[in-house]
Amino acid sequence: MAERVDLDLLPPSIVRRRARSVMLMAFVLAAAAGGVVGLAGGRVAGLIAAAVVGVPLLLLALSEARRRTWLETSVVTVRALGSRRVDIANADRRDLMVSDVRGQCTVSLLLAERRGKTVTVPLAIYAPAGGVELGVLGLRRLADALAEVADQDARMLSALLIAQLRSEARGDSAIERPLRLAAGLAPAGRLLRKINHGRLAALVSELG
Fold this sequence. Notes:
Layout: E1 4-6, H1 12-41, H2 43-66, E2 68-72, E3 75-79, E4 83-87, E5 93-101, E6 104-112, E7 118-127, E8 130-133, H3 136-147, H4 152-170, H5 178-183, E9 192-194, H6 197-207
Antiparallel strand pairs: 1-2, 2-3, 3-4, 5-6, 5-9, 6-7, 7-8
């Protein structure tokens, strides 16, 4: 039986705490929307407005609270409200993605199959005060799985993760880490951006 390796970037306790904050916000916004609409359109309209505002946020909170990510051999599984599985070896897309939200830069590995299944594995979150990075075992196993794929881009991503592990072992600062450097290659102007494989390959070559 293949060993299961957790790929959760944040501890479950922190994820649950964030989910509770979203739930609280959902109740507050739903109550506000329901109250305003209810005054103008009556009780039924107010309840509908509260549901329209609150239910999506509650589902988001529940999804985040339940979200777990793990790797078995080369298969990445993400469980939230349901489960999605993508085999790294059979993926049609293997991209490094960057998003910026409220001063936090998140670097993630996106894996997608032709049938439409997609999973995202957060690798690191960087902020002005520091950051959080995926554990050594998770990075190592992802790098190994990518290295087994007969594809130049997959092996480049593997080399990037190996460089990240070496940087961690040296004790480099957050701004010197390969994943942080890779995030700087992403184009500006959009919330979610894909890092160009050519520019990423040049960075990996420089890292040696």
